[in-house]
Every structure is written in structure tokens, then in C-alpha cells.
């Protein structure tokens, strides 16, 4: 990576600037290579000696922390609290919910030995925590007065993966998993939908990532759930990304783990539970929703640095330019802006511009002796690449307003992209043609049969992403794009997906 060369001066700076820019494969050439280049060069994550496991570097982790804060605030505002449960799950517990075991067993990593001894019972490393948390809920919930239980856990999980890609699919990843228990089926359903709304609002407000919310088909639902709902985003290459899921578990886990309570009617009954999660995968989504050929483009609300100030080192700049740059830094920080003053003198301004562009900082302020004479700074927007001389007077409020405008504009750009890459088809030939051509979402009638869904997947690689709530279910006019039968479940969204 560029910093490691340690060379100084203008000439080396220029070479390095060129190197930085050319090191990123253009999206149009190879989107997947572009993605990996951005992850590595922007120092979001790196490969490790552990197969399928990444190191999240400080810049990537800072994005994760902002995601955590934004979600945690929303979970707490909707009545949830955080707790922590064990990393290990005894094998006998994991085996209790049949569908759950079947769904997860190909991906479970096992601990068979502790120190010098073979374990009497293997321990699974949690692929998700319904089992261990359900066991504890059985202990904690006795009466309807103990309900609802609304707990979230921030944790790591392990799912053994054959093919991995940083953030999108890794053997170990970070996430949050909410696990709730309720008195009635209706309350559990309400909770499932409340969280789906939280996820959608978060993705759209904070990540500027438009998502389609809806219900998963039977074949795509969570192992052991009654119903799964998801938010689905469209990436820059036209592939869909499942960005979050919320599951209504019915009484399936409550029955397997004996989560029972005495109801208001004095009758002992099983609780109704839910679970829901989003993961570090969101960072992959962020990269692929907004990034361009120069690298990362971060929406201001999720950018570790919203503004970077680059002083131009001319003349006695340390006595003139630098104090002014510090003044601006303090003013911006005073307005709640996350700001970085890049006063490293071993790099040229040009090199710094390229680096911060690649790392997606929304706004760059350049300030030199001439700008000071004119009482202005040069402001560069990452999203549009526009450069605008901006008066120093009133700079901080102007930057705050601009950051909001950039946030809105990135969302709008992504929404427009999705609209342009979403087609409604009425025949199977049309669906096949779309999937062979420019990728994106396809909206099509679907009869609800798993056979039709499986055939579509086998023949076009498109999976059923979800059935939106506005799908027009019950409208007799819709027919299945595959078999032509009238569709009871309305329309579904299909796409090739990550
Ligand atoms: Zn059909």
C-alpha cells in the first residue's frame, strides 16, 4: 500500500498519485475486481492467514461503529435492550429445532477439544443464537408479566463458507441479532414488521440505500421461521443484495426450547418469538451502491470523516495557512461535523486529493495563501466532483447544509438507478431476455409454487428476492410468469443476487 513506500517530495508524490488512481480496476471492466480493489486500497478490510476471515481495518471499523450507533439508537427508541450470550452452543441444544438444524448444519464450525482433553459433547460456534437465547428465555419467562422480552445482541458469528468475499460473505462476521418473545401471535408479527421498518428507514436515511421491503418465499425463509421478511437493495452492477432480515418464528422455537408462560387466563402456553439481524454485509452494500471508478463514495451520515481539509504548503504555510486550516477545523467540529485536517507534510496536496477521493470523503476543503487573500476555500464534492470557491465567512453552516444535500442527492441517485434497472415483465421469454441482458430487478407475477421458483432460478439464475407488500396480492389479473396460473401471491421481485 502507498504509505509503506515512505518516499517523500513532489516527484514521488505525483507518481504515487497516479499509482493510486490506476490501481483501481474500472467498474465496467470487472465489477468484482473493482470491489476488492476498493476494499483493500481504501483500507476498509484486509485478508488474514485465516481462510475466509477478514481483518476489519480502522477506517472500515469506523463505518461499522456508525452503523452500530445508528441502529442501536433506533432499537432503544423502540424499547429494546442489549445483552450478551455465549459464543458456544452444546450440540444437543442445536439439534432440538429440526428445520433449524437442517438449515444450518452444513455451515457449523465445531469445537471438539479443550486444552488436552476431547470434549464429551461437541460445541458449535454460534451461526446464530436462537438456540442459546431460547434456552435462557425458557428460564427467565414464567408469566405473562415477564413479556415482552425485547433483547438485542451485538456479536460475531461463524458460518463455514466455501467462497468468501470481504464484507459480503465471510466465515466470521459481525452483526446484531434481536431476539424477542411475546404473549400473542399478533404482537410477534407486529414486532417483526416494526423491525423491518426500522431496517428500511435506517438503510434509506443513513446509508442512502433504497431498499424493497417484502416477504421471503418459503424456500428462501430462515431455517425454523414461520415467515421471513427482508430488505433488498440493488448494487451498482445490477445484482441484488439482501441487506437485512426479520423473522416471525411463531411458536417453533418456543416449543423446541420450552419457552412457556402462564397467561392472563392462567393457562400455561408457549411464547411467540421473533429474531432479526443485519451484519457487516451492509458495508459491502454501501460500497457497491455508491462507489465509482475513483473508489469509495460515502454518504455523509455514515462517513468517518465528512470533511477533509488539505492545506496547500506554499511559502511560510505553517505560520499562515495552517492556523487558518485549524480555525476552520474547529469551527466545523463545533457544528458537529466529523472533520480531518490532513497536515502531513510528507505527501503532496495532489496525492492527498486522490487518496481522500478514493476513500470516499464527501467534502474536501483546499486552502492555500491565495485562498486566504480572497477569504475563501476551494470546496470539492466527492459525489459530483464539482469544485466551488466558497467564502470562509459562514463556511461551517454552509458545509453542514451541503452535507445534507449530498446525502439526499446520493439517495436520489441510487433510487433513480434502481428505477432504471427495474422492469416489469409479463412473459417468461421476457424475463429470460432481461436476465441475459442488463441485470437488475424484474417484477413478475408468481403463483406461489416452489417449483416455478426453482425452475426460474435454474434457468435464469434469478432468485425470488421478496414479495413486496404492494404486490397486489389477491388481484386476479396477475398470472404466474412461469406457469401462467392465476397468482394468489401477486407479484414478486426477482434478481441475480449476492
Ligand atoms: Zn407458477
Please outline the helices and strands.
Elements: H1 10-22, H2 31-41, E1 45-47, E2 54-56, H3 58-77, E3 81-82, E4 88-90, H4 91-94, H5 98-104, E5 109-114, E6 117-125, H6 130-140, E7 149-158, E8 172-182, H7 185-205, E9 211-215, E10 227-234, E11 240-248, H8 252-257, E12 260-262, E13 268-270, E14 272-279, H9 281-290, E15 307-311, H10 321-334, E16 339-341, H11 349-358, E17 363-367, H12 369-373, E18 376-381, E19 387-391, H13 395-420, E20 422-424, H14 428-436, E21 441-445, H15 450-460, E22 463-468, E23 491-495
Parallel strand pairs: 3-7, 15-16, 15-17, 20-21
Antiparallel strand pairs: 1-2, 4-6, 5-6, 7-8, 8-14, 9-10, 9-22, 10-11, 11-14, 12-13, 17-18, 18-19, 21-23, 22-23
Helix pairs in contact: 1-11, 3-7, 10-13
Bound molecules: zinc ion.
Zinc ion is lined by residues 447, 449, 452, 480, 482-483, 485.
Can you describe what's shown?
- Helix 1 (10-22) packs parallel to helix 11 (349-358), helix 3 crosses helix 7 (185-205) and helix 10 (321-334) crosses helix 13.
- Helices cover 36% and strands 25% of the residues.
- The protein is an alpha+beta fold.
- The strands form five sheets. It has an eleven-stranded mixed sheet, with helices on both faces.
- Strand 12 and strand 13 form a beta hairpin.
- Mean pLDDT is 93; it is low at 1-14.
- The structure holds zinc ion (ZN).
- Zinc ion binds next to loops.
Bound ligand species: zinc ion
* Poorly predicted residue ranges: 1-14
Rg is: 26 Å
Mean pLDDT: 93
Distance between the termini: 28 Å
Number of helices: 15
Helix content: 25-40%
Amino acid at each position: 500500500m502507498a504509505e509503506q513506500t515512505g518516499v517523500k517530495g513532489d516527484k514521488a508524490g505525483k507518481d504515487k498519485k497516479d499509482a493510486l488512481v490506476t490501481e483501481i480496476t474500472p467498474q465496467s471492466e470487472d465489477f468484482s475486481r473493482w470491489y476488492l480493489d476498493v476494499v483493500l486500497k481504501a483500507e476498509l478490510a484486509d485478508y488474514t492467514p485465516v481462510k475466509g476471515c477478514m481483518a476489519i481495518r480502522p477506517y472500515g471499523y469506523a463505518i461499522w461503529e456508525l452503523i452500530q450507533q445508528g441502529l442501536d439508537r433506533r432499537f432503544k427508541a423502540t424499547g429494546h435492550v442489549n445483552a450478551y450470550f455465549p459464543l458456544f452452543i452444546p450440540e444437543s441444544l442445536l439439534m432440538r429445532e429440526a428445520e433449524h438444524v437442517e438449515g444450518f448444519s452444513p455451515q457449523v464450525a465445531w469445537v471438539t477439544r479443550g486444552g488436552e482433553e476431547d470434549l464429551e459433547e461437541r460445541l458449535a460456534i454460534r451461526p446464530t443464537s436462537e438456540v442459546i437465547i431460547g434456552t435462557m428465555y425458557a428460564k427467565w419467562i414464567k408469566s405473562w408479566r415477564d413479556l415482552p422480552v425485547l433483547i438485542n445482541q451485538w456479536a460475531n458469528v461463524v458460518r463455514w463458507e466455501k467462497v468468501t468475499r470481504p464484507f459480503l460473505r465471510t466465515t466470521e462476521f459481525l452483526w446484531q441479532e434481536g431476539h424477542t418473545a411475546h404473549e400473542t401471535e399478533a404482537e410477534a408479527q407486529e414486532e417483526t414488521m416494526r423491525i423491518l421498518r426500522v431496517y428500511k428507514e435506517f438503510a434509506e436515511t443513513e446509508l442512502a440505500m433504497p431498499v424493497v421491503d417484502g416477504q421471503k418465499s418459503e424456500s428462501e425463509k430462515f431455517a425454523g421461521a414461520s415467515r421471513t421478511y427482508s430488505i433488498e437493495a440493488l448494487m451498482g452492477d445490477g445484482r441484488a443484495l439482501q441487506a437485512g432480515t426479520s423473522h416471525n418464528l411463531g411458536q417453533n422455537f418456543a416449543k423446541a426450547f420450552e419457552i412457556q408462560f402462564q397467561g392472563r387466563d392462567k393457562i400455561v402456553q408457549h411464547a411467540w418469538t421473533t429474531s432479526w439481524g443485519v451484519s457487516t454485509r451492509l458495508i459491502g452494500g454501501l460500497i457497491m451502491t455508491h462507489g465509482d471508478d475513483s473508489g469509495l463514495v460515502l454518504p455523509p451520515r455514515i462517513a468517518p470523516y465528512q470533511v477533509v481539509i488539505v492545506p496547500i504548503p506554499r511559502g511560510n504555510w505553517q505560520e499562515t495557512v495552517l492556523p487558518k486550516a485549524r480555525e476552520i477545523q474547529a469551527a466545523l467540529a463545533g457544528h458537529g461535523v466529523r472533520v480531518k485536517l490532513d497536515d502531513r507534510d510528507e505527501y503532496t496536496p495532489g496525492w492527498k486529493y486522490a487518496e481522500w477521493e478514493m476513500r470516499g470523503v464527501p467534502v474536501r476543503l483546499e486552502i492555500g495563501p491565495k485562498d486566504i487573500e480572497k477569504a475563501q476555500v476551494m470546496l470539492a464534492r466527492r459525489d459530483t466532483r464539482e469544485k466551488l470557491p466558497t467564502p470562509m465567512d459562514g463556511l461551517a453552516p454552509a458545509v453542514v447544509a451541503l452535507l445534507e444535500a449530498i446525502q439526499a442527492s446520493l439517495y436520489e441517485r441510487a433510487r433513480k438507478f434502481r428505477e432504471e434497472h427495474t422492469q416489469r415483465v409479463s412473459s417468461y421469454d421476457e424475463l429470460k431476455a432481461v436476465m441475459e441482458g442488463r441485470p437488475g430487478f424484474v417484477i413478475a407475477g408468481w403463483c406461489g409454487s416452489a417449483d416455478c421458483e426453482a425452475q426460474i432460478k435454474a434457468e435464469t439464475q434469478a432468485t425470488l428476492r421478496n414479495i413486496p407488500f404492494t404486490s397486489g396480492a389477491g388481484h386476479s389479473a396477475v398470472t404466474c410468469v412461469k406457469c401462467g396460473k392465476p397468482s394468489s401471491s401477486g407479484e414478486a421481485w426477482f434478481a441475480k443476487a449476492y
